[in-house]
C-alpha cells in the first residue's frame, strides 16, 4: 500500500493569499501546503480521502487514470469544494463512488445540486454513486475493507478511516473513547495538528502528540497544518523521532 500526501495544509493553505508571514514567504517546498487530502494506492485500486479546492492541481501532480472512491471526512469546503473536478474520471468511468456520513451527503446535495440531479441533467455534469458511512460499520470498496472512526471537530461529527494498519484522522479535536479500539496496532497514524496555540476545533501540536502517545502507532505524521505552526524544518526538531510533519507529495509505503 502506498500513501501519497496530496495536501497537508489547513483551510486557507500555505501560503495564505496576500500574507507576508515568514512561513508564507518560506522558500522551503515543505512549507507550501495545499488543502488537506491523501491518496491511497492499494493493490490496483486508488482512493482519495477528501476532495478540497486543490483537487485538480493534486491530480495533475499525481496523475491516475482511475479513481475507485472518494471518502469524505466531513463537509467543510476545504475538504469538499473540488468535487466538480471529478469530471475527467466521470467521463472515463461513469458515476464516481463516494463514501460519507449521511449529513455530509445532504450538504453536498444542496451545494452541488447539479451533480446529484435525477432528471434534466446538464450535459457534462459529473455524477456520483452515494454510499452512506455509519459509525461502527466497516465497509468494503472493491476488495478493501475500511473502518470508520468517529471523532469530533468541536461539536461536528467527523469520520477518520482505517485501512489495514494505516489510519487517517483529520479535523479532530476529540475522539470518542469507544472508538480508540479501532486504532490499535497501527503501523502509520496520520492526525491533524493545526498550530502551537490551542484551537476550538483542531488538535494543536501538544494535543496531537498526547493523542499519538495514547494510540501508540509505530509511526505518526501530522497534517492540516497552519502557517502559524512555524517552519517545517524547525518544528520537526521539536518532535519525537517516530513523529514527523507530513508535507505535500510525501509518499509512504506500508
Ligand atoms: Zn479542514
UniProtKB/TrEMBL annotation:
<feature type="domain" description="Metallo-beta-lactamase">
    <location>
        <begin position="34"/>
        <end position="224"/>
    </location>
</feature>
<dbReference type="Pfam" id="PF12706">
    <property type="entry name" value="Lactamase_B_2"/>
</dbReference>
<dbReference type="InterPro" id="IPR036866">
    <property type="entry name" value="RibonucZ/Hydroxyglut_hydro"/>
</dbReference>
<protein>
    <submittedName>
        <fullName>MBL fold metallo-hydrolase</fullName>
    </submittedName>
</protein>
<dbReference type="InterPro" id="IPR001279">
    <property type="entry name" value="Metallo-B-lactamas"/>
</dbReference>
Amino acid at each position: 500500500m502506498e500513501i501519497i500526501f496530496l495536501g497537508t495544509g489547513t483551510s486557507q493553505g500555505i501560503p495564505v493569499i496576500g500574507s507576508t508571514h515568514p512561513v508564507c514567504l518560506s522558500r522551503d517546498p515543505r512549507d507550501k501546503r495545499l488543502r488537506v487530502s491523501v491518496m491511497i494506492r492499494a493493490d490496483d485500486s486508488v482512493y482519495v480521502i477528501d476532495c478540497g479546492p486543490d483537487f485538480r492541481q493534486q491530480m495533475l501532480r499525481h496523475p491516475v487514470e482511475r479513481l475507485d472512491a472518494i471518502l469524505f471526512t466531513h463537509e467543510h469546503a476545504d475538504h469538499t469544494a473540488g468535487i466538480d473536478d471529478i469530471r475527467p474520471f466521470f467521463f472515463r468511468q461513469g458515476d464516481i463512488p463516494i463514501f460519507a456520513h449521511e449529513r455530509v451527503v445532504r450538504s453536498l446535495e444542496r451545494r452541488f445540486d447539479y451533480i446529484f440531479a435525477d432528471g434534466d441533467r446538464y450535459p457534462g455534469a459529473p455524477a456520483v454513486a452515494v454510499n452512506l458511512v455509519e459509525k461502527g460499520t466497516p465497509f468494503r470498496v472493491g476488495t478493501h475493507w475500511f473502518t470508520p472512526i468517529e471523532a469530533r471537530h468541536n461539536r461536528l461529527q467527523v469520520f477518520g478511516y482505517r485501512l489495514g494498519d494505516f489510519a487517517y484522522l483529520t479535523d479532530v479535536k476529540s475522539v470518542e473513547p469507544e472508538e480508540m479500539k479501532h486504532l490499535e496496532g497501527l503501523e502509520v497514524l496520520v492526525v491533524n495538528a493545526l498550530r502551537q496555540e490551542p484551537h476550538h476545533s483542531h488538535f494543536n501540536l501538544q494535543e496531537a502528540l498526547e493523542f499519538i502517545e495514547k494510540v501508540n502507532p509505530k509511526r505518526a505524521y501530522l497534517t492540516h497544518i497552519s502557517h502559524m505552526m512555524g517552519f517545517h524544518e524547525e518544528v520537526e526538531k521539536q518532535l519525537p523521532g517516530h513523529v514527523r510533519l507530513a508535507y505535500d507529495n510525501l509518499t509512504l509505503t506500508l
